[in-house]
Design a protein that fits this description.
Number of helices: 10
Shape: globular
Distance between the termini: 34 Å
Radius of gyration: 19 Å
Strand order of the largest sheet: 4-5-2-1-6-11-10
Number of domains: 2
Order of helices and strands: HHHEHEEHEEHHEHHEEEEEHE
Amino acid sequence: MLMRQFIRNLGRRILRTRDITDSIRKRRLSIERRLYRVPFSLAETRELLVKLGVARGRVVWIQSSWNEFYNLRAKPSEVLALALDIIGPQGTLVMPAVPILADPTKVLEIDIVPSSSGLLTEIFRRHPGVLRSIHLSSSVCALGPAAQYLLRDHHLDPFPWGALSPYQRLIEHDARLICLGLGRFVMNLTPLHSVECLLYDELPYFRQIFQGTVKYRWKRNSGEQGEHEFRARAGRISLRGYGRHFSRDSYVECRLSNLDAYAIDARSAIEQAVALARKGVTIYAEPRPRPELFVPATRSHSNL
């Protein structure tokens, strides 16, 4: 612990920044822009999305980093329109929309505060008809027939990713989970956090993931307002090597120019992640996953 903190402090001095991760990401992106220069079109982007399993009538979750779309000659709004066109009016598009201002001492004006989850998510948040769940740390936006059900009870859940959250309701709809520009499988996939909520009562380890609670007030443009209290997540995540534990035929992974992309069905992703967690394999490096913490205390109410 002390050694890692020393290394981080040394890195901050060398790189002259307090945010080492962001500095490294920007430097990597600068290098890759020189190496990967092959442009790609909206037509090729459509082919990519279809290959990833985006289909008419499906519930589709998309996480993305617009910074990685530098070889695409199109606007974020055009990519959004493309995804909506593929799923059609019977499909539902879902994206993370974590509030950029997450101060529990202030009223969360959920219909106004921008998303910090990437440019594409902010364009989506502003799109006509898009709904947004009430949550200080894990808000989600959606558009389509399933949107209301996915989002409506998020602020009633004691966990950020619990049974009433959009994340676990994605499992019910067996949504297609898509990641664009966020590394190889499975370097970034927020719905995986459902696991620590599903196994909270079953395995002692996951009770250590949450420390204390966060309480805040929220307000809608309609004037509706209230309070919400949820368990605060602690711990350090390390996804490196985690993806190799998944069945290779359960997900699709591909690349378009510089853009890494992968997809997996929500139910398959969470079922596999729950099974791995019961074996002591998690997305967390801290708290340290000691074997004795994965001995079941009581069985979870989950049917996964």
